[in-house]
Amino acid sequence: MSFPSYRLSVQAILVVATGVLSLIALSAIAVAADMVIRSNIEHSVFADTRRATTDWIGSMDTATPPPPVTTSEVDLLQLVDPTGKVVSASRAAAGRPALSEHWPQSDDRIQDFTECSGSGCVMLTATRPSPQEEQLLWGGESHVVYAGRDQPAILGTHRLELYLAAGVLTGSALLVMTAWLLIGQALRPVEQMRRRIARVTVTDLGLRVPEPPGRDAIARLARTANETLSRLQEAVEHQRHFASMVSHELRTPLTGLRAQLEESALYPEVDPRLAIRDALGTVERCQLIIDEMLMLARVRTSPHRPERVNLTALVRAEAVLRCTKVPIQVYADEHVEVCGNPVQLAEVLVNLLLNAQRHARSRVEARVARSEGHAVVSVRDDGIGIEEEDRERVFEPFARLVEARRRDPQGSGLGLAISRAIAQAHHGSLTVEDSPLGADFVLRLPLLDDTAPV
């Protein structure tokens, strides 16, 4: 039997943490305050009782002094002889037995203490006169003066602790309420982002989350979310456009294939072997388009494993393999190295060299050089070139100029699109630049940093 698991929200977790921490902190403050208050009250009471004993002793001039006149809250005063008999006492202490049996020693003549009985607790100070005073007044016999008062209620009960506990709970409750409001206010932009993202659908990717001002974590989260939505919108739009072009490009050969098969089925005089041969040619064209589509999709969506690639050696090797049609002259700096996927980079070079040979009159030039932190590969032919307004169009999937259709009717129009996608996946670029004769395709890739791991 499984039980559902419940997880507190971020706001609830932070509020609970605030409540626990505030309760611990305020409790520690309350304990310290309780100890300080009690200590201060006791110190004040004993200071009064000590003062009362020393004042009365200072006023004694006979062995049996008159009862003292009390003017403060210290109303219990007694003079007790060695036998425990009360020699003199204040009005509040008259008729009572000795307030305490505690007798200070000669080396510690003033002592503070508290004595409790069934009627309550009394805070007392016991003071012995000096030996000279004892000799002068009582012939050397020791006497003790007791001064005290009833223990204050705040010390004798737990009233102070109750007040402090109420203060701790009230303070914690106020802090929890304040934390709930402040954290809720701080997380409100996150909730707004959540609601906005929940409204985003595949058919409507134009929505963006509100970006709060500042550079805190929430503002950075909002900006990252908008950047992600922008990339997602761009990817979906690209996929829609790509799917539309693919369906358009495949419709023509598939329609032709169906017509060929229907013709062979409806008309017995049609040679079936010839029909099958024509159908196989159409199927091969469809397969070529599909294979190149899959390659383009893999380049744009799959990460490549970077390796050390020597572009100089790669260009020379591909040029040697393809010099049977139109001569390829290579002018290259030595050891121009980049970090990338050698198979994909070889695919780019093959596409550029074949494209240049297809449009060249007599020769193709391939140059490899270093320039401003980049490896630059230039593939130039001596054909009719590409008009400036068509230089970006040639990199669009399935885009084919009139000259390209004339020279290669069976081409798919995906080779240059795949090559640019590979260049961009390697943080580089592929463009058509000005040339005095023919077309000049220029591939730029970041040079290999020897300090970076490969």
Q: How would you state the average pLDDT, rounded?
A: 83
Show unreliable segments.
1-5
Note the total helix count.
10
CATH architecture of the largest domain: 2-Layer Sandwich
> CATH superfamily name of the largest domain?
PAS domain
- So what's the CATH class of the largest domain? Alpha Beta
| Relative strand content | 15-25%
| Lateral strand order in the biggest sheet | 2-1-5-4-3
* Count of distinct strands: 12
Helical content (DSSP H or I, runs of 4+): 40-55%
CATH topology of the largest domain: Beta-Lactamase
Radius of gyration: 51 Å
Along the chain, the helix and strand elements come as HEEEEHEHHHHEHEEHEEHHEE
The N- and C-terminal alpha carbons lie at a distance of 52 Å
**How is the biggest beta sheet arranged?**
5 strands, antiparallel
Structural class: alpha+beta
